[in-house]
Amino acid sequence: MLDVMYFAWVRERIGEPREQVETNAATVAELIEELRRREERYALAFSDLSALRVALDQELSDFDAPLDGVREVAFFPPMTGG
Amino acid sequence: MLDVMYFAWVRERIGEPREQVETNAATVAELIEELRRREERYALAFSDLSALRVALDQELSDFDAPLDGVREVAFFPPMTGG
Amino acid sequence: MAVRVQAEGFDPGAELSGFACGRTDVGAVVSFTGVVRDTDGGLDRMEIEHYPGMTERAIAAMVETATARWDLADCLVIHRHGAMMPGEQIMMVATAAPHRVAAFEAAEFLMDYLKSRAPFWKKEFGTDGSGWVESKDEDEDALSRWE
Amino acid sequence: MAVRVQAEGFDPGAELSGFACGRTDVGAVVSFTGVVRDTDGGLDRMEIEHYPGMTERAIAAMVETATARWDLADCLVIHRHGAMMPGEQIMMVATAAPHRVAAFEAAEFLMDYLKSRAPFWKKEFGTDGSGWVESKDEDEDALSRWE
Question: What is the CATH number of the domain that holds A33?
């Protein structure tokens, strides 16, 4: 069971800020594939991975990173702080 | 007739902050030669020109600059502002 | 060293007055303040979304890296989230060091990382509608200076 | 744009609060404050001598160069002369610009030039006697960055 969070326009496209996802995905990329297949809004949010960033347990990570032991996954566009 | 000013340790070595100098020196270097010959304190103050800077009418200048039309000459060590 | 992530506004002058003061090992204090800019006059407000928890962790890690890399006496980061009007302060970084180069470099390092590595997202609301501020390649490129 | 050469102390926080505020064309404000440092605990006071007239001219020329080179909305330089104690502010530079790189670079440019091209001379008075602060090669070298 993963806590999946969405921020900025990813959150707007998915339509909610967070959800619990039951998954056996081994990597972030596999999780994304699962989500994409679910519904159009996911396919839309994850259509261009180059415009997306991922954090695992609040640390920036990569799409090929393993999900083993991870509790919280967050997807968002490149950050625009400062 | 030139207004000659001294700052920092140059002032301390010469013993006064400013004086009027009657001179026919054509350049800063010639003026320094004249002053050096005057008294030991001038010779001491002007012993190492690499440690000195000069301003003509409040603009940084060079030792070979002409004194033509100049009213105020200032000698001082490298600046330490900021 | 202090990090504050908050919705409330703040006064950069008051923050600077209380920062690293009375310390005799400090020769240089640098501050950076980011302000909501509205060049065209069409901006009503800006809203900043953030990732609570990760934001604090990410900024704390940047401050730790800066402290290890430069000889700093003190360091302050304030970053707001939520709604703010044109002319209002978004964030502030302050660094105090014995020497000016360290204070400047550490402040610029923190700014460059806050721009692209702290989980904040800006959305602008104006007369022409609303939109997420896009990240700039030059902000990403700025990080290479510190590698 | 304001330049102040003065014997009196000043409060950098109060100066920053009043600087470029309420302007919606400003996205970035950088400040630098120089403080009398006493790392070894042996400094009683610092005295700064200056060349009245030339000081103001030299700083005004630096500000003019910075304004021509960077897109600045505002710029402030304060530099003290006379006696000051460890922990007291010596000088301050503030820059306001649409973008952060311009604000940072202009502030560093002004600092580098104030260090080596404004007619100030520092003398330290301490438990071991007194002496003029010597200029550093690295301060002279810093100017080459801007050529």
Answer: 3.10.20.30
d(CA B58, CA B15): 21
**Chain B residue with Cα closest to D122:** B80
Task: Judge whether C126 is closer than 8 Å to chain D, CB to CB.
Answer: no
Which residue from C53, C116, C121 is facing A7, i.e. has the nearest CB?
C121
- Touching check for B4 and chain D: CB below 8 Å? no
Could you tell me if residue B22 is inside a domain?
yes
What's the count of helices (H) and strands (E) in chain C, helices before strands? Answer: 4, 8
Q: Is A81 inside any structural domain?
A: no
C abuts A (3+ Cβ pairs < 8 Å)? yes
Report pLDDT for D39: 80
What pTM, to 2 d.p., does this model score? 0.96
Closest by CA to C118, choosing from C49, C37, C33, C54, is: C54
Q: What pLDDT score was predicted for residue A38?
A: 95
Q: How confident is the model at residue C79 (pLDDT cuts 50, 70, 90)?
A: very high
CB < 8 Å to C123, chain A: 8
Concatenating the DSSP letter of every residue in A8-43 gives HHHHHHHTSSEEEE----SBHHHHHHHHHHH-HHHH
Fold category of D2-128 in CATH: Aldehyde Oxidoreductase; domain 3 (3.90.1170)
Q: Which residues of C touch D24 (CB under 8 A)?
A: 36-39, 41, 43, 86-87
For chain D, what are the domain ranges?
Answer: 2-128
Residue numbers of the domain that contains B44: 2-76
- Tokens for D31, please give them: 């400040």
What SS3 string covers chain D?
CEEEEECCCCCHHHHHHCCCCCCCCCCEEEEEEEECCCCCCCEEEEEEEECCCHHHHHHHHHHHHHHHHCCCCEEEEEEECEEECCCCEEEEEEEEECCHHHHHHHHHHHHHHHHHHCCEEEEEEECCEEEECCCCHHHHHHHHHHC
Q: List, for residues B6-58, the tens digit of each pLDDT value.
A: 999 999 999 999 999 999 999 999 999 999 999 999 999 999 999 999 999 99
Please report which confidence band the pLDDT of residue D24 belongs to, taking 50, 70 and 90 as the band edges: confident
